[in-house]
Design a protein that fits this description.
It comes from Dichotomicrobium thermohalophilum. It catalyses: (6R)-5,10-methenyltetrahydrofolate + H2O = (6R)-10-formyltetrahydrofolate + H(+); (6R)-5,10-methylene-5,6,7,8-tetrahydrofolate + NADP(+) = (6R)-5,10-methenyltetrahydrofolate + NADPH. Pathway: One-carbon metabolism; tetrahydrofolate interconversion. GO terms for molecular function: methenyltetrahydrofolate cyclohydrolase activity; methylenetetrahydrofolate dehydrogenase (NADP+) activity. This protein has 10 helices and 11 strands. The protein has 299 residues and is α/β, with parallel strands linked by helices. The chain folds into 2 domains: 88 residues, Rossmann fold, CATH 3.40.50; 130 residues, NAD(P)-binding Rossmann-like Domain (Rossmann fold, 3-Layer(aba) Sandwich). The strands form 3 sheets. It has a 6-stranded parallel sheet. The relative contact order is 0.17. Bound molecules: 5,10-Methenyltetrahydrofolate. The site of 5,10-Methenyltetrahydrofolate has 17 residues, from helix 2, strand 4 and helix 10. 5,10-Methenyltetrahydrofolate binds next to helix 2, strand 4 and helix 10.
Length: 299
């Protein structure tokens, strides 16, 4: 049974961006507000530069204003905090994204906590983490939002599903658990110290891998018929004849697709959804700052 449906994240992301563009146009027309997203990049990480360029292009394509601040790798924490304070006060900026990881002289937690929660379109500020956890509004992180939207393209109602998340990061695993609870899943967060991990993952109707270890989840870790969402983006060592190593997820795709009923590819799965959801969060941040209710931008 090599029959798993491949969930096309690129296509779903394009739909989400189309919805965002409509909402941007409506916000301009009805309220004279053009949402603005600012990305702050500290240092020269080449992979980061690629994401940042994609983000800017897609932000502008949706009709929003994109600005970028590139700071040298030696930037002090005080200088970065001063920039964040300026952006917090700038009325043309509705979303602030400080690209992580930051150089080691800068305390990431301090920077995240300095971003105005209203403009924290990553959803990393503790106020947003708390609001999402309690259901009191707040901005939810982009990658978990993207995962839920992709899962719902297969199964519009996730109620009662056994969801197993592998990975307990603040950026993906933990907030994903909150969003899946809100969708009425039974949620397990497994991690590197979980006893008999394959046995735990084999219980999952919905298996979400976010550990950052290339192809760790094997085919026999997957329950037959499960939906598999692969959050990992790992670059393998270049093989002879290859210029760059291949990108692979946290799931051994060729094995898992034989067992699952639906699976996301890497690339072209969760990655494009992360950026689409960032744009959606930016529109809703601009709406909230202007006293408007959020709009639903799902699949
Ligand atoms: N404050 C902050 N927020 C982030 O959201 C954030 C961050 N820092 N630091 C870096 C990670 C990484 N990230 C990605 C987003 C999109 C793709 C993406 O679109 N990937 C494509 C293309 C991959 C490729 O070809 O290189 C795909 O998976 O198909 C990947 C990675 C956001 N991050």
């Amino acid at each position: 049974m090599s029959g798993a449906q491949i969930i096309d994240g690129k296509q779903v992301a394009q739909q989400v961006r189309g919805r965002v563009a409509e909402e941007v146009a409506a916000l301009k027309r009805d309220h004279g507000v053009t949402p603005g997203l600012t990305v702050v990049l500290v240092g020269e990480n080449p992979a980061s530069q690629v994401y940042v360029r994609n983000k800017s292009r897609q932000t502008e394509a949706a009709g929003m204003v994109s600005t970028m601040h590139k700071l040298p790798a030696e930037t002090s924490e005080a200088d970065l905090l001063a920039l964040v304070a300026d952006l917090n006060e700038d009325p043309s900026v509705h979303g602030i994204l400080v690209q992580l990881p930051l150089p080691e002289q800068i305390d990431e937690t301090r920077v995240i906590e300095a971003i105005s929660p209203a403009k924290d379109v990553d959803g990393f500020h503790p106020e947003n983490v708390g609001r999402v956890a309690t259901g009191a509004g707040g901005i939810a992180p982009c990658t978990p939002l993207g995962c839920v939207i992709l899962a719902k393209t297969v199964q519009p109602d996730l109620t009662g599903m056994e969801a197993v998340i592998v990975g307990r990061s603040n950026i993906v695993g933990k907030p994903l658990a909150q969003l899946l609870l809100k969708e009425n899943c039974t949620v397990t967060i497994a991690h590197s110290r979980t006893r008999d991990l394959p046995e735990v993952t084999r219980r999952a109707d919905l298996l979400l891998a976010a550990v950052g270890r290339a192809e760790m989840v094997r085919g026999d870790w997957v329950k037959p018929g499960a939906t598999v969402i692969d959050v990992g983006i790992n670059r393998l060592e270049p093989q002879p004849g290859e210029e760059k190593g291949r990108l692979v997820g946290d799931v051994a795709f060729e094995e898992a697709r034989e067992v699952a009923s639906a699976i996301t590819p890497v690339p072209g799965g969760v990655g494009p959804m992360t950026i689409a959801c960032l744009l959606a969060n930016t529109v809703n941040a601009a709406r909230a700052i202007n006293g408007l209710e959020p709009v639903a931008i799902g699949a």
